[in-house]
């Protein structure tokens, strides 16, 4: 509904006689009336509101585009090198973890054997 309303307002601004705002120039008028001043303020306010809506839409579009750009940008050489180093470290980490687990198991097995020997006595 608001989109239709904004489109109707935009059409009114472009098609009506108010799209040419020369008549709002009160600089040559010696003493403008309050009605003319109020009308000028009203037109300026309407134009400001319309432009602020457009600016908000543009800002949101820029945010979306910048996030899409940052997601799809190619990797730099340093990024690729970091990824290669990280991937090459993973097997080493897995091997170290396996060694640590086997050492823990050996220690526990030794404790169990000691307990068994005490029980047999």
Question: How do the helices and strands line up, and which of them pair or pack?
Answer:
Layout: H1 2-15, H2 34-72, H3 77-120
Pfam family, one: DUF1319
InterPro entries: CYMV_Orf1
Notable features of this structure?
121 residues; mainly alpha; 2 domains; 80% helix; 0% strand; rod-shaped; CYMV_Orf1
Question: Can you describe what's shown?
Answer:
This protein is mostly helical and 121 residues long. It has 2 domains: 1-73; 75-121. The chain has helices spanning 2-15, 34-72, 77-120. It starts with a helix and ends with a helix. The mean pLDDT is 83.
Structural class: mainly alpha
Query: How widely separated are the two ends?
Result: 90 Å
Residue-averaged pLDDT = 83
Major beta-sheet overview: none
Point out poorly predicted stretches.
none
Q: What's the structural domain tally?
A: 2
Gross morphology is rod-shaped
Helix content class: over 70%
| Chain oligomer state | single chain
Please state the CA-atom Rg, rounded to the nearest Å: 38 Å
Number of strands: 0
Strand content: under 5%
What are the secondary-structure elements, in order, as H or E?
HHH
The number of helices is 3
């Amino acid at each position: 509904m608001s989109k239709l309303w904004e489109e109707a307002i935009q059409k009114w601004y472009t098609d009506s006689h108010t799209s040419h705002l020369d008549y709002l120039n009160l600089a040559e008028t010696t003493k403008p009336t309050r009605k003319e001043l109020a009308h000028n303020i009203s037109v300026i306010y309407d134009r400001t509101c319309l432009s602020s809506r457009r600016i908000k839409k543009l800002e949101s579009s820029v945010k979306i585009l910048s996030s899409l750009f940052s997601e799809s940008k190619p990797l730099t050489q340093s990024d690729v090198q970091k990824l290669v180093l990280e991937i090459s470290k993973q097997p080493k980490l897995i091997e170290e973890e396996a060694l640590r687990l086997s050492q823990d198991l050996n220690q526990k097995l030794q404790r169990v054997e000691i307990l068994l020997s005490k029980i047999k006595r």
